[in-house]
Each structure stands twice: as structure tokens, then as C-alpha cells.
Amino acid sequence: MQRLPFPEAEPPDTEHAEAGRKLFAGEVDFLKGVVAMSGLPPADRAEVCFAGRSNVGKSSLINALTGRKALARASNTPGRTQEINYFTLGDSHYLVDLPGYGYANAPLDVVRKWQALLKTYLSGRASLRRAFVLVDARHGVKPVDEEIMALLDRAAVPFQCVLTKTDKIAAGTREKVLAQVRERLAPHPAAYPELILTSSEKGEGLATLRSTIAALGAQQ
Prior knowledge:
The chain is α/β, with parallel strands linked by helices and 220 residues long. Helices cover 36% and strands 19% of the residues. It contains 6 helices and 7 strands. The protein has a 7-stranded mixed sheet with strand order 1-3-4-2-5-6-7, with helices on both faces. Helix 1 (14-25) packs across helix 6 and helix 3 (108-124) packs parallel to helix 4 (143-155). The longest helix has 17 residues, at 108-124.
């Protein structure tokens, strides 16, 4: 039987689940918001970034992962976060919250500046181990998501698709969305070949995502 392309990631075993739990249960702090490459902290540890279009649930997911309700600012106003926000996970990881893309309620010149910053960051950050591209499970991959995926391909940055808000869709719809996501990911050479399905409200997939991030920090 042929294995499905881009299968759902398996839940972590006990050892890896505990490593992920300990990482996110430890010290997690907001470090700084960066508006220019000159403001980036030293590339002295493993770094992962979260990218997603506005209102994909990125802030809610970061808050759920860390168990801190207001660590990342959730907003009902798309495009409000216009900085690259750095968080420290102990002294081993940076977790990076990238500006939301698409449907940005911001002046055009501001949008251009932060899109340019995003591209420069993704192309030039040697310590970046993986980008997590967040896709709303209710809508699947949109053209604006494919733009960021193509950018990651060009930058040779490995990325993994994380579906958010999986609790908001019915079982039948879920399979249709997964089929669409797999089809859209297939042409992208930088796409990591497993999906992580998450729900910030129900906790689905959080242990898997935590353990994945912890393992990336353990790599030399």
C-alpha cells in the first residue's frame, strides 16, 4: 500500500513528549520586536519561526504552546503585528513570530517595508532550523500561503505545514482540506513531508509541535 504523501505527524513517544513539555514549561520570555535586520539578536542558538496569514491563529497557537495566555498578542485587526517578534525558550531556542501576511490593514508603504524585512530575514538567518507555515484548516492553502512557500523554497529554508483551528471543521471537511493541502505542498522542494494538525482550544497537536521544536534544538 502506497504511503500517503504528507501524512499527519505521529504523536511523540514518551521521551520526546517530555523533552517538548520541559522546553515549553521552562522560562519563556518575550525578548524584542525587530523592525530591521540590524536589530536581530545573535544567531547563537536554534531558531524556529512561525509564519501565517493574518487571522490564522498564530498568536493563539504560540500562547497555547507556552501555556501563557498573553505571551503573543492576539488581535482582531489583521496586520497589527508588523515586527519580527523574538521569544526565548530557556537558553536553547528562539521562537520567532513573523508578521502576518495578507489582508494587512496597514498603509502600503508599511506593508512593503515589512514584506521586504520578512524576505531578508528568511533568506539570511543561518540559525533558522525550520519555518512553520500555519494554514487555517477551515480554508486550506490560499494563494498568499503559496507565495510564502515559494519564498521559502528560494531561500532553501525547510518549512513544515501546521494546520490550525482543526476543531472548527467536521470530519468530512477535514479530509477534503487535507487533500487540498497535500496537493498544494507537493511542488515545494523545501516542504517537510509531514503535517501537524493543531487546535489551540482543544490542545490537539500541541505535544507533537513542542517535541518537534525541541528536537530541532538538539540537532547539531
